[in-house]
Amino acid sequence: MDFPFNFTVETISLDQVMNIREAATYLVRVEGDSMNGAGIFSGDLLVVSKAVEPKHGSIVIAVVNGSPMCKRLTFLHGLPVLKSENRGYSDLHILEGDEFSVWGVVTHSIRAHDRQP
């Protein structure tokens, strides 16, 4: 097969490229459309690191009152706010008394070619 460009074939390890074998790394399958604006679609596989420090603007896997979710972490007056990347969803302000934790920062998103947004 002829290609109109030069390329090199080499073996790569997705485990190495995405640090998947790190003990602090895990994979999550996305359900829903709340992060479509960030290029994360239902069915995507996310690589999540517990070793990366979550900061303002990070896309995270968070748990609020027992419900896990993928959202963008922001802060308003020092308090966490979870934002969807879909205008159809409201911001989720973390209130006093809410059980809130961040389970990790999304480092990569993988989409199978047969799963179109």
Feature tags:
elongated; 117 residues; single chain; mainly beta; Umud Fragment, subunit A; 7-stranded antiparallel β-sheet
Describe this structure in words.
Helix content is 3%, strand content 38%. It is mainly beta. It has a single domain (14-110), classed as Ribbon (Umud Fragment, subunit A), CATH 2.10.109. It has a 7-stranded antiparallel β-sheet with strand order 1-2-7-3-4-5-6, with no helix packed on it. Strand 5 and strand 6 (92-93) form a beta hairpin. The longest helix is centred in the first third of the chain and has 4 residues, at 14-17.
- Uncertain runs are none
Q: Please identify the oligomeric state.
A: single chain
How many strands in all? 7
Mean pLDDT: 89
Could you tell me the CATH topology label.
Umud Fragment, subunit A
Separation of the first and last Cα atoms? 30 Å
Helix content: under 10%
Strand portion: 35-45%
Radius of gyration based on Cα positions: 17 Å
Identify the CATH homologous superfamily.
Umud Fragment, subunit A
Tally the helices: what do you get?
Answer: 1
